[in-house]
Design goal:
The chain is of the alpha+beta class. The chain has helices spanning 9-13, 24-41, 45-51, 57-66, 84-97, 99-119, 122-133, 245-279, 291-320, 325-350, 361-371, 378-390, and strands spanning 139-142, 158-162, 165-176, 183-190, 193-200, 206-210, 222-233, 281-282, 285-286.
């Protein structure tokens, strides 16, 4: 029996032909982001990750801004106004390079900018969004606290009136972009509930310190924020947000990007494993010729294909205005979990090389350990689905 002709790795991995489901504009955006990553990120990312740094983040932000990637799915105020699916595909390509790069874009656009666009006043949108879209201004999103991650309703950060101003006191933890941000969207407890505030980071009493010694998302800047009597004017409050629905709506935007982003990390690991299995020889033949290796590759391809179809389905629902939070939970839970398992299995195919930064697999696996937790842990998304099925909120 003659061997089957080898398809290019990318074509082989897309076994279901999902590329045919994309529109021409979506393919063009995907190609542009992929080229940017190939030129700007991929040659350096292993070194950045190993050194635990993101060099020249402001230059990177301006490059991303010139590409229209910052807040790209938002309308007006200098934002590109693309479809949600196109934004998802951009996140996929960014995370195919590294989760930290996708996080940079997600926090800027789907958390900080979305909060202002969805809940801000016209004056606030005009002041901040155009400069954030170009990358001139970097934003962060202050919700998570040292003692309150999955339970943001118990936050201790407080805002109290002092004449015509507000005074903010508290701490926020695990804040992406926190120590390089020019502006922070900070959520605090007031007498009338949880409210959001736009806080320039040069305001007296505001400080941010970079968190070191991370073994995941190392090419991403993560910080602790401290607010010690930070005084902001009444105009700093986001007028449209009252209660937890404000920050949770922003988290759903970020989770949507993760649904696609996780597929990108999985694709990189899968393509690396397929390429390695074709080229690596043991016992006189490629390891891809062994049944156990083929079983692993087939299982990985199955999960990657399902995750991609799920992402596209949810993208189309979001574009149609029919996406609901429970569906976002399904996507985030499934796709991150699948991506993590694909990376772990790819590591076994690469053997000892699987732990080397000469290959991207272990870096993606380590990054996904964080992605599994942030924007809602796998446990919380499981309970969101459980509540949908039973009508009982088990986490309350």
């Amino acid at each position: 029996m003659s061997p089957t002709p080898l398809l290019p790795v990318a074509d082989a991995v897309d076994i279901l032909g999902t590329d045919a489901l994309l529109h021409d504009e979506e393919r063009a955006i995907r190609a542009s982001v992929r080229e940017l990553c190939a030129q700007r990120i991929d040659p350096h990312i292993a070194t950045w990750w190993e050194e635990g740094t993101l060099p020249q983040p402001r230059e990177l932000a301006r490059e991303l801004g010139r590409m229209g990637l910052l807040g790209m799915h938002l309308e007006g105020y200098g934002c590109a106004g693309t479809s949600a699916t196109a934004y998802g595909l951009a996140c996929l390509e960014l995370e195919a390079s590294d989760s930290g790069i996708r996080s940079f874009v997600s926090v800027q656009g789907s958390l900080a900018m979305f909060a202002i666009r969805r809940w801000g006043s016209e004056e606030q949108m005009l002041e901040w969004l155009p400069r954030m879209a170009t990358g001139e201004v970097i934003g962060c999103f202050g919700l998570t606290e040292p003692d309150h991650g999955s339970d943001p309703g118990s936050m201790r950060t407080r805002a109290r009136r002092d004449g015509d101003d507000w005074l903010l006191d508290g701490r926020k933890m695990w804040i992406t972009n926190g120590s390089i941000a020019d502006v922070a969207v900070v959520w605090a407890r007031c007498d009338d509930g949880i409210r959001g505030f736009i806080v320039p980071t040069d305001t007296p009493g505001f400080s941010a310190s970079t968190i070191a010694h991370k073994m995941s998302l190392r090419a991403s800047i993560t910080a602790e924020l401290v607010l010690d009597g930070v005084r902001v004017p009444a105009s700093a409050m986001l007028p449209g947000a009252r209660g937890l629905s404000g920050p949770l709506s922003c988290l759903n935007e970020a989770r949507f990007g993760i649904i696609f982003g996780a597929v990108g990390a999985a694709r990189t690991a899968l393509e690396t494993a397929v390429r390695y299995a074709r080229e690596r020889e043991q016992f006189g033949r490629p390891i891809g010729a062994f049944q156990l290796t083929q079983e692993k590759l087939a299982a990985m391809t199955l999960e990657h294909s399902k995750a991609m179809l799920l992402a596209l389905h949810l993208g189309r629902r979001k574009d149609a205005g029919t996406l609901v939070p429970q569906q976002v939970s399904v996507g985030k839970l499934n796709n991150v979990r699948a991506a993590l398992e694909i990376c772990r299995t790819a590591r076994t195919i690469l053997g000892a090389n699987g732990i080397s930064l000469e290959y991207p697999v272990i870096r993606h696996a380590n990054n996904l350990e964080s992605v599994l937790t942030y924007e809602g842990t796998s446990e919380m998304h499981t309970l969101v689905i459980g509540e949908h099925l039973t009508g009982i909120a088990a986490y309350r």
